Amino acid sequence: MSNPLTKPLSVRGLLLGLAGVAAVTTVFARWITVNASTVGFLLLTVVLGTATTAGFRVSALVSVVAMLCFNFFFLPPAGQFTIADPENWVALFTFLLTALVASHLSDRALRQTIEARRRQQETEQLYALSRAILLTESSQPIGTQAAQSIAQIFASACVMILDSKSGHSYFGGAQEASGWEPRLEEVVRVGGHQRHEEDDLDIWPISLGGSPMGALAAVGIAVSDGAVQSMLNLVAIALERVRMEEAANRAEAARQSEEFKSTLLDAIAHEFKTPLTAIKAAATGLQSLDPRPTQDQHELTSIIAEETDRLSQLVTEAVKMAELEAGKVRVKRATISAGALLAAAREAFEGRGADRIQLEARGDAHPNVDGELLALALRQVLDNALKYSPAGSPILCRAEQQGQEFTIRVEDRGPGIPERDRQRIFDKFYRRPGTRDRVPGTGMGLHIAREITRMHGGELSVEDATPQGAAFCFRLPLRGDSRT
User: Fold this and answer.
1) Whether 52 contacts 106, CB under 8 Å
2) Per-residue pLDDT tens for 441-451?
3) Sheet of 470-477: strands edge to edge?
4) What is the C-alpha separation between 217 and 203, in angstroms, rounded?
5) pLDDT for position 391
6) Of 257, 266, 382, 482, whose CB is crowded by the most CB atoms within 10 A?
């Protein structure tokens, strides 16, 4: 791609600059008599005007010509390239140095202005593209609308988007894309940007989370690398929306079949992850558009990216819970240390209460369990304890071996659970009276935790803690087959 800040030597600017020097020299050498300082300032003005309009290289040449004219016509002895008074040597070279430095500063200001305008234009283009993608209509495929929007907004003669997973291609622009498919497939396979000078064609890979999704080809797009990356992120959102719609369509088509529940779960997962992908892409675009962000900007965009990753993890866990309810989950047992199991559960609460959770692994217990599933169950109980216990109060999580059983005990300092509710709290969607409006939740966490425990052949119960609060106790066999 061409850089708008790199310009060839301007013949027109050079001629105008030389004409200005000639005009000043002629007027004040023949018709108007003034002192040398006045002429020097006027010649310096011509040099600055040349730097502003034609750049530093042209203004440097004009500066040398202006210095020679200043010496020949205005410094005694006039009419010769010599200087009688040594002080005039200082004046002459001061003039040249001032002209060069001022030309450089003027040229740099011009470049910064051009750069600012280019960034503003790119920001406006990216905003228009994001708006077009978010407001797509159902009359045309989303991929086609995205390609047409890129062609219109970035003034490209032809745009092609390849979705590698579905194999679909989407086109936009007035020019016809012929024979581009092999090139795009190669970029998807090997990665990296490809530039084809003969066609003024650029091809970029499209990826999301490190996984290749497809490729984008466009003719005549000249924008910065940061803008290109943001554009590719927006296209990735469009492709993700395509897949979301396809998943939703598959769910509708499979509504009367046995596969409906599984397809519906996939559609729900995409429904949640699409806005998270948009937030992540927007944070990445903000970081790439400004090469020197302030500390506050970097910190805020980093927080957005980190919290988006955390929300994405929560969505993944929610899907895992739904699969558990659908009976699609199987226990995959492996030996794991009690300390590693507790640490994996607490890790999910970093930044939101992990410092309150006190871990205690007694002995050297190594249960044979599904570590991922059991950590998920333990997180539900820990999250429940954090919600209902006073802010700042400790949560004790202790694991140990008791005979042929492996137990995990979670104790909080909350209000406790009345005897009449100790069985019902494990029912789906059950919320204790008086807590629905005070504590957020869905009533699914403890039910999921108990089902995972039972899948391991164990049981989850609740009892009073000492001196106050509630204690949830997981009891699982050290070894054995699951019940599913």
Assistant:
1) yes
2) 556 778 888 88
3) 357-361, 395-402, 405-411, 470-477, 459-464
4) 4
5) 84
6) 382
**Strands 368-369 and 334-335, how do they pair?**
antiparallel
Q: What Rg do the C-alpha atoms of the chain give, in angstroms? A: 36
Count, residues in the chain:
484
pLDDT, one tens digit per residue, over 394-451 is 999 999 988 888 999 999 888 888 888 888 888 776 777 666 656 665 567 788 888 8
Range of the domain at 207: 136-222
Indicate if 156 and 212 belong to the same structural domain: yes
In contact, 293 and 301? CB cutoff 8 Å: yes
Domain boundary among the residues 327, 362, 382 is at 327
Q: CB of 145 within 8 A of CB of 132?
A: yes
Domain identity same for 293 and 374: no
Residues 354 and 472 in one domain: yes
CATH code for the domain of 210: 3.30.450.20
Q: What is the CATH classification number for the domain harbouring 395? A: 3.30.565.10
DSSP 431: -
What DSSP line would sit under 291-355, residue for residue?
Answer: SS--HHHHHHHHHHHHHHHHHHHHHHHHHHHHHHHTT------EE--HHHHHHHHHHTTTTTTGG
Task: Fill in the DSSP letter of residue 465.
Answer: -
DSSP-assigned beta bridge partners for residue 470? 464
Cβ-Cβ contacts under 8 Å for 233 (sequence gap 6 or more): 281, 282, 284, 285
Q: How many CB atoms lie within 10 A of CB 60?
A: 18
Please tell me the distance from the alpha carbon of residue 203 to that of residue 188, in angstroms, as a whole number: 10
- Which of 14-28, 106-120, 343-357, 424-438 has the lowest average pLDDT? 424-438
Tokens of 25: 């020299």
Read off the DSSP letter of residue 213: E
Q: Where are the alpha helices (DSSP H) in 27-85?
A: 36-54, 56-74
Give me the long-range contacts of 40-43 (CB less than 8 A, separation at least 24): 40/70, 40/74, 40/91, 40/95, 43/69, 43/70, 43/95, 43/99
Total number of domains constituting the chain: 4
Question: Which of 474, 459, 457, 452 lies closest to 376 in space, CA to CA?
Answer: 452
CB 385 within 8 A of CB 414: yes
What burial letters (b/e) apply to 454-475, b meaning 16+ CB within 10 Å?
ebbbbebebeebeeebbbbbbb
Same domain? 218 vs 291: no
